[in-house]
Amino acid sequence: MRDSRGVTYLFVMLAVVLMGISATVVAKQWKTVVQREREAELLARGIEIQNALAVYSAQQKKGRVVPGEVYPLTFEELTKVPNHWEYVRDPTGRIMGVRSKSKAEPIKQHDFPPALRHFEGVTSYYLWVFQYPNASTPQTPQGQQTPQGQTTTQGQTTTQGQQTTQGQPTSPGQPASRTPVPTPSAPGGFPMP
User: Fold this and answer.
1) 93, 116 in Cβ contact below 8 A?
2) CA-to-CA distance for 89 and 79, rounded, in angstroms?
3) Are 75 and 67 in contact (CB under 8 A)?
4) Nearest to 106 by CA among 50, 57, 40, 157
5) What contacts 24+ positions apart, CB below 8 Å, involve 71-79?
6) Do residues 186 and 63 touch, judged by C-beta distance below 8 A?
7) Tens-binned pLDDT, residue by residue, of the chain (193 aa)
8) Cα separation of 140 and 149, whole Å?
9) What are phi and psi of 88, to 5 degrees?
10) C-alpha of 129 from chain center
11) Which of 69, 95, 96, 129 is 20 to 30 A removed from 82 (C-alpha atoms)?
12) 115 in Cβ contact with 50 (< 8 Å)
C-alpha cells in the first residue's frame, strides 16, 4: 500500500509541474498575441497621423509662395494624441510626425506595406517614425514630375499630365520656363502659385 501512495504522489507532482510548464507556454503565447495586436494598432494609428500630416500640409500650402512642407505647432491643430506617442519635430519646432515612446522590440520586422517599408529590420518601436513625408516615399526635386503625373511644389499638373511651372504648360521633353506669364483670370494678372 505504501508503494502505491508514493507512486500516486510522484504522478501528482509530475502533473503539477506539467501544468506549470503549460501555463508558462500559454502565458508567453498570450503575451505575443497581445503584442501583435498593439503592434497592429501602432501601425494603423501611425499611418493615420502620417496621412493627417500630409493633408494638413497640403491644405496649408495652398496659395503659399514659399516652397516646403507646413507642419502644425501642436496636435490640437491636427488631432488628439495618446500619451504613449512622442512628437517628431522639424528644425523650426513644428510637428512633422510621431513615434511610440516604447523601446520594446517589435514582432513584425518584415513585409511592411509600401508606405512603411523603411521599418524593415528596425528593432525598436521607438524607431517606427510616422512622419510626412516619410522615408518610404520617393522624393523628387521641387518642380520635377513624378511617375504618376504629379508634380512637386513648383508646378501643377495639367489634365494631360503635363507639368506646369508658374502657370506655363510644358511640352514633353521641353524644359519649363520659370518666367511668370500673365493670365487674365488671376488677380493682378499673374497666376496663383
Assistant:
1) no
2) 16
3) no
4) 40
5) 71/95, 71/96, 78/49, 78/52, 78/53, 79/49, 79/52
6) no
7) 566 777 888 899 999 999 999 999 999 999 999 999 999 999 999 998 898 888 888 878 877 788 888 888 887 777 655 677 898 999 999 999 999 898 999 989 999 988 888 999 999 999 999 988 887 777 665 555 444 444 344 333 333 333 333 333 333 343 333 333 333 333 333 233 3
8) 12
9) -110, 120
10) 7
11) 69
12) yes
* Three cell numbers, residue 179: 518666367
Instruction: Sort residue 9 into left (φ over 0), alpha (ψ -120 to 50) or beta.
Output: alpha
- Residue 186: how many CA atoms within 13 Å on its side-chain side? 13
3-state SS of the chain: helix, strand, coil percent to 5?
40, 10, 50
60 in Cβ contact with 54 (< 8 Å): no
Q: How far is CA 37 from CA 47, 82, 123, 126, in A?
A: 16, 17, 17, 17
